[in-house]
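Notebook entry, structure prediction.
Reason for the run: the old model in the group folder had no record of what sequence produced it. Starting over properly, with the input documented here first.
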Amino acid sequence: MIGHIHIKTAVFVIAMALAPVGAAAADPVADFYTGKTVKFIVGGSAAGGFTLLARVVGRNRGKYVPGSPTMIVDAMPGAGGATMMAYMANAALQDGTVLGAALPIAVNAPLLRKVKYNPAKFHWLGSVTAMTEVSSVWHTAPATTLDGAKKVEVIMATSSKLSSAYIIPAFMNAVIGTKFKIVPGYRGGGPMNKAMETGEVHGRGSFYNSYVTTKPHWLRDRKIIHLVQVGPGEKDLADVPNMRDLVTNDDQRRMLDFLEAPAYVGHGFFTPPGVPADRVAALKKAFVTTLKDPAFLAETKQRLMIVNPVSAEKITSVINRAMATPEPLLVKFRQMVKIGPPKAGKKKK
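New structure, fully documented this time:
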C-alpha cells in the first residue's frame, strides 16, 4: 500500500515538472502570425527600386517569421517618403502585421519641416544595405572635380529644396565654397538623369547604389564622375572625397551627423511604435536571417542589388543622434543652405 502511494506521488511529481516545459514551448508569436498576412508599405512608387527590393525581401522572409505569414508589398508614395511614415506612426495597425520600408531622406524630414512622426520612435529591424549619397556630374560638365566646382558654376538638378540632392550641394557651397547652382522642380530620378544626358543640367545628387542597379553602364564607361560622397563610404569610391573629411569645425561635423543619417538607413525596414516587444524581436531576427538566405542573395545578385546589412542598433543610434540635434544648430544649418524654417501644413477646411 505504501509503495503504491509512492508510485502515484512520483507520477504526479513528474507530470508537474513537465508542465512548465510544455507551457514554455508554446510560441505566442507563432500563434499570432499563423494564417495572417503581413504587409510591407514602401514610401516610394510602385515601380521604384525600394518597392522592388521590398518584394525580394518579402518573397524570402515569410518562412523565417514564426507562423510563416504571407508577405505582400504595397506602395504609398508622397512627400519624399514622409506620407508613409506619418501613416505608420498614426494610422497603421500596431500589431506587427504592417511594416514600413523607408525612403531614407524621410528620416530627416522632422528636422526640416512639420511632419506627424518621429523616426526615433519606430522599431527599426535593420537595413539591407547602407546607401552612400553621391553628388555627381556628367563627364562633359564644366567642372569634374570639387576644386573645379569652386571656380565655375555647375548646375545641379533636384526635386525640391528639401531633397538631399539640394541640401548636400548647398551645404558644400556654404562650407567649402563651391559654386553649385541648384535647380528644383524635377519629378524624380528619371527626368534628372535625362537632363544630365542632354546637357540641360551638369549633375545631380543620388545614391551610389541606384547607379549600380539602374545605370551600371554609366559607371563602367565613366559617363558620370562623382565629386563627393556622404555617409559610410563605398569601397568602389576610394578616390572620391568623403564630406566628413572636408568639414572644418565641430558645428559642421554635428550637422553631418544628421546629413549622414539617411545614408545609414538606406534600405531600412521598421515597425510602428506600438508593436509588442516579442513580435518586434521575432521580426528583427527574421530580417537578419533573411539577409543570409541563399535564395535571397542569389536574387539580389541577379538584379545587381547591393547587400551590405546595417544592424537595427546602428540605425537606431544614428537616428537618435540626428533627432537630438539642438535647435540653434538647425537654425544655423537652415540659414547656411538657404531653406526656411519648418512650416505647418495647410489646415483642412
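Summary: Residues 1-24, 345-349 have pLDDT under 50 and may be disordered.
The old model has been moved to the deprecated folder.
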